């Protein structure tokens, strides 16, 4: 490896054209994922409260920002995009360190996005024991992918320092290329499982076919991540040359960053219907509390709403003068779905106009 390196950098001083495209695409998708997370938190704040799945989405976004930063560093101080013989040892070391950091951040970000989706499923579809078991199994697969992937990235070579100083005497702890293929394939399979997991539950819900299609479609947007997974694998297989990574990782980097940000965006999509419903009803009135607006949306029978923030209101025949904090658990039978445990945590006004209605999904 050292015989391939130049004593000084021979590449042009400007940013390589392919890296300009890489930075531009990454910036656009990072902006879109930022907007998605902001809208997610707005939706959660005006509906019920921020939950664990929201925080995991935020962590995934912060890690996506890390991917953007290292992408910019790769294009600037590391001068990525040129053949390896143009690099001095010092510049190649910078490039390889930055590449390792980007791969570590990538694996972490997509893992937190997957975990956010599973936490959302567990919260809104915590209905049947079989679904809970299935979601936990997929959750362990995600955790296993994250831990294994990070360890394989960091401990690929002995000594570890050979990751960014390949001219040192070293030995690979495993077949690097084969490991990339296997981990990328596992990533795609897990994404497909997460995509399919809620579909049987959605189609057994007691709601109109139109609402089932809408709800199912929201979760089916995960197919975009599967497509990005596939393109990432194709680029790794067809374009990456482990002996010349500086010139062959550009397109792979594009799909890697697209996948990271698409994962964040798709994670946030199921929270948007309640936000759209709120905006359609105009600004809040009265004391500024969302309680009355939330109750009206329930009584109007808007978008189907589920989960541990669900409100079931019963008319008592007379109006009470106080606002009651509802915090109890009850069991309801939904035909083919078995007993459903409902935990309410919103403030509602009990009156004769109230009726059975599913609460806010997210």
Brief sketch in words of this structure:
This protein is mostly helical.
Would you mind describing this structure in some detail?
It is a single chain. This protein is mainly alpha-helical. It folds into two domains: 2-275, Rhopdopsin 7-helix transmembrane proteins, CATH 1.20.1070; 290-348, no CATH class. 58% of the residues lie in helices and 5% in strands. It has helices at residues 17-47, 52-75, 89-124, 129-154, 176-196, 199-202, 209-220, 223-238, 245-248, 250-268, 272-280, 291-299; strands spanning 157-158, 171-172, 324-325, 329-333, 339-343, 347-348. The strands form three sheets. It has a two-stranded antiparallel ribbon. Strands 3-6 form a two-stranded antiparallel ribbon. It has a two-stranded antiparallel sheet with strand order 4-5. A hairpin with a 5-residue loop joins strand 4 (329-333) and strand 5. Helix 1 (17-47) packs parallel to helix 10, helix 1 (17-47) crosses helix 11 (272-280) and helix 3 (89-124) runs parallel beside helix 10 (250-268). The relative contact order is 0.13.
Indicate the topology.
Blueprint: H1 17-47, H2 52-75, H3 89-124, H4 129-154, E1 157-158, E2 171-172, H5 176-196, H6 199-202, H7 209-220, H8 223-238, H9 245-248, H10 250-268, H11 272-280, H12 291-299, E3 324-325, E4 329-333, E5 339-343, E6 347-348
Antiparallel strand pairs: 1-2, 3-6, 4-5
Helix pairs in contact: 1-2, 1-10, 1-11, 2-3, 2-10, 3-4, 3-10, 4-5, 5-8, 8-10
The largest β sheet comes out as:
2 strands, antiparallel
Percentage beta strand: under 5%
The number of helical segments is 12
Low-confidence stretches: 284-362
> First CA to last CA: what distance?
53 Å
Which class of secondary structure composition applies to the elements?
Answer: mainly alpha
